[in-house]
Amino acid sequence: MSSARLTKRVFAFAASLVGFAAMGFLPAAAQPAAWPQRAVKFIVPFGGGAGADISARLVAERLQQRWGKPVIIENRPGGDGLVAISAFMSANDDHVLMYASTGSFTVHPFQYDKLPYDFKADMLPIAQVTNTILAIGVPAESKITSLKEMVAQMKAAPGKFNVALVPGITELVFDGFVKKEDVSVTKVPYRNIVEGVNDLSVGRLQMMMAAYAILQPGIEGKTVRPLAVAGRDRFSGAPDLPTAREAGVPSLEMEGLVGLLGPKMMPLELRERIGNEVVDVIKDPAIAAKLVATGQAVNPGGARAFAASIQQQIDQVTEIANLVGMKRR
Fold first, then answer.
1. Of 214, 64, 199, residue with least CA distance to 135
2. Where are the domains of the chain?
3. Model confidence pLDDT, tens digit, residues 124-168
4. How far is CA 254 from CA 27, 134, 234, 270, in A?
5. 3-state secondary structure of 138
6. Bridge partner residues of 130 (DSSP)
7. Sheet holding 207-211: strands in order across?
């Protein structure tokens, strides 16, 4: 057979493959792999009932309907998030994703000498979902009615102001506030920060900075007075509360960023596709209402938007760490 005729046959065969592919007649191995091919797992580094756990379950339920595959929530609390990270890293599977607040991860390099992961290299952003609303509260019986008054009281009684803080980025932000405002306080550690609300309600604590959802029982019971929220914007669930910046103490400003992360082998194209689906789900007004009721603000964004928000948080953490003398380990 002449080379010209052979070339024509090769082109004809290639053209037929293109035609069959367009009609969906190629064998499965020749077509791009569909995702998901099996059950998807969200690893959550908090126990059941936490804000991230609630939003994870709402999102998972809707995605399960879209994908036609189970979306399983696996709670792995403890170890400052490292228990969950170990499970995520060992899976090394694009069907095992991390659903978490990024605050702990961005602070880890300043807290631990050795980490089993590199956040930016090993945990790739898929979708930004919510902001956990953080609030500053005092006992309702206190005479303090604003953040400025709180700072004045701290300066008037150095070391006698007992405070409770969520570990991680919240505590780091507060350390930056202490440095900038030149105040002295006593930190009261809690194994479970939720227990601090009872002590705040009866005046054993003079201040607490935690998720609005944690303070909410005391606020609704009139035993805790919220002074401000820490985010850049007011919280729709408590619109009369000023932000820390509006209240004149911008050093307490921070965002509780929550979203979905994938393993390092997951391509950007797939992350963007999943991210867009998560954004579509989270924009549902019914889901938004449920999240606001649990102290969360809907803040949807795809993979690129989430990456930008994470970088902004990393920059803030680095700036505060430098201010308080913490070095990257």
1. 214
2. 40-133+255-324, 134-252
3. 999 999 999 999 999 999 999 999 999 999 999 999 999 999 888
4. 52, 8, 12, 30
5. strand
6. 258, 298
7. 186-187, 162-165, 207-211, 134-139, 224-229
State which CATH number among 3.40.190.10, 2.60.40.10, 3.30.565.10, 3.40.50.720 fits the domain covering 134-252.
3.40.190.10
**Of the candidates 61, 101, 94, 55, which has an alpha carbon nearest to the alpha carbon of residue 77?**
101
Helix (H, G, I), strand (E, B) or coil at 238: coil
In the chain, count H helices and then E strands.
Answer: 12, 11
Q: Are 153 and 144 in contact (CB under 8 A)?
A: yes
What tens digit of pLDDT does each residue of 162-216 get? 999 988 899 999 999 999 999 999 999 887 788 899 999 999 999 999 989 889 9
Task: Report pTM.
Answer: 0.81
Calpha distance 98→189 (Å, rounded): 27
Taking alpha carbons only, the member of 168, 226, 175 closest to residue 197 is 226
134-252 and 40-133+255-324 share a CATH fold: yes
Q: Is 30 helix (H, G, I), strand (E, B) or coil?
A: helix
CB-based contact 242:217 (threshold 8 Å): no
Topology adopted by domain 40-133+255-324: D-Maltodextrin-Binding Protein; domain 2 (3.40.190)
